[in-house]
Amino acid sequence: xxxxxxxxxxxxxxxxxxxxxxxxxxxxxxxxxxxxxxxxxxxxxxxxxxxxxxxxxxxxxxxxxxxxxxxxxxxxxxxxxxxxxxxxxxxxxxxxxxxxxxxxxxxxxxxxxxxxxxxxxxxxxxxxxxxxxxxxxxxxxxxxxxxxxxxxxxxxxxxxxxxxxxxxxxxxxxxxxxxxxxxxxxxxxxxxxxxxxxxxxxxxxxxxxxxxxxxxxxxxxxxxxxxxxxxxxxxxxxxxxxxxxxxxxxxxxxxxxxxxxxxxxxxxxxxxxxxxxxxxxxxxxxxxxxxxxxxxxxxxxxxxxxxxxxxxxxxxxxxxxxxxxxxxxxxxxxxxxxxxxxxxxxxxxxxxxxxxxxxxxxxxxxxxxxxxxxxxxxxxxxxxxxxxxxxxxxxx
Length: 396
Ligand SMILES: *Cc1c(COP(=O)(O)O)cnc(C)c1O
Fold this sequence. Notes:
The chain is α/β, with parallel strands linked by helices. 37% of the residues lie in helices and 14% in strands.
């Protein structure tokens, strides 16, 4: 048998690439979309509202507003919190760029917060030192699907009269102290991109208990126009008024029907993700070259990602090598994320290297393993087998 690594010309552990994430579309999902195609509505119709009701139910919120993407939802959240020029918004360094971009869309200034070295979540103990008289909002990101320490964050935000927004794009279906993600901050933001828990193609939502904010967001997604299609239908008045500058951030009925159908499988799919995470956890528990990210006891992790860290003391072995070696074995590993301010665009805005040292160091050592609900047991075994195969070389 050829024991050489695939990167050295040996046979890979499998013939086809297992991706890091993948949507799970079944016949019911397909039927739901086809039904809409045969109906009177393609864009905003009854399915949008049905989807919103289902989002509120699953997020534990009074209101939810569906929009065209998670990024649009973040933009709408910054708008609803009145972020504008001169305002600062605290964002963790390790997140998808869209979290910080949304602040800039509104003319605000992102201020990057370092992460906790164990959980890789925004570190409440470092938050206070970043707050100024211009701080308007803190955005907490439930990185990988682990809810942040919302009680600690809320306490600090309340003391300074700052709003708390949750970027919960990774954590739909997760919980914090038994409470649902989506009900833990002033506004919570979700994405329905295919790699996330619920796929609508493209799509997103903001959930909240604040009725005024929900109405502002509903108007923002439709050009800033006050009335929605229901109000216009029951009114004989042909007039509508644009009250503010909005966008076309609407979600279609086609997308909503898919999202609604997918949402029915949410709990089941989160349970599958947790099971896979459990298998990974025990498989790697005696590999001292790999350390899992700490999961706090008070949370129900939603496992959008399963992230491992390489022990940096193993100097002969770096993340980029592991990444290439695993890809050669046909394991679709990925890296989430480069600290946002290290992207060239943010560097040009003047953010300097070194502002979040833990995030920068952590970034060098993290790797996301394949994680999606309909992963076969054999896929999971292949990932584990490949990790052992590649790391074995370095114990020799
Ligand atoms: C996916 C994601 C977004 C953006 O969502 P889209 O629907 O792709 O626009 C924002 N923040 C985080 C943390 C994400 O993972």
